[in-house]
Design a protein that fits this description.
single chain; 162 residues; alpha/beta; Molybdenum Cofactor Biosythetic Enzyme, Chain A; six-stranded mixed β-sheet
Length: 162
């Protein structure tokens, strides 16, 4: 697999330097372990314009195949990552967050509070993950091995059912 990935941590406290980002590095390690090349990482505040800007940059300029965000998917007034994602995608893929939800509900009923989104922008796939390292890991594990197939489909291939 020759896919590239960008990992964006969305967190006011991490971007201000008052809390260490652990979810972003964990997500990077997971995707690198299955063969993705990390082409960009960033930590941005919970600001819709900043989130949209970095997503567009990663998709349109860097042409990252997979763009993963971590954080900003909950119910806090500052949690705006799904809205920012929906504002920049061409097509939503609701089943990716649904698969993450189903897997997470086996672990905790609090999973039902996630508002994650996923979709495509050009040939990039954008997926929102929760902000906690544990939840980001669990959610990514639920979908990671299918994302490569999604990327192949975005490139016009990969329509087999294996």
């Amino acid at each position: 697999m020759n896919h590239t990935a960008a990992v964006i941590t969305v967190s006011d406290s991490c971007s201000a330097g008052t809390r260490q980002d652990t979810s972003g590095p964990r997500v990077c390690a997971m995707v690198e372990q299955v063969g993705y090349q990390i082409v960009h990482t960033a930590v941005v505040p919970d600001d819709p314009d900043r989130i949209q800007s970095i997503l567009v940059h990663c998709a349109d300029t860097l042409r990252a195949d997979l763009i993963l965000t971590t954080g900003g998917t909950g119910l806090s007034p500052r949690d705006v990552t799904p809205e920012a994602t929906r504002a920049v995608v061409d097509r939503e893929i609701p089943a990716i967050p649904q698969a993450m939800l189903f897997a997470s509900l086996r672990i905790t009923p609090r999973a039902m509070l996630s508002r994650a989104a996923a979709g495509t922008r050009g040939q990039s796939l954008i997926v929102n993950l929760p902000g906690s390292e544990k939840a980001a890991k669990e959610n990514l594990e639920a979908v990671l091995h299918t994302l490569g197939h999604a990327l192949e489909m975005l490139r016009g291939g990969g329509h087999d059912r294996t």
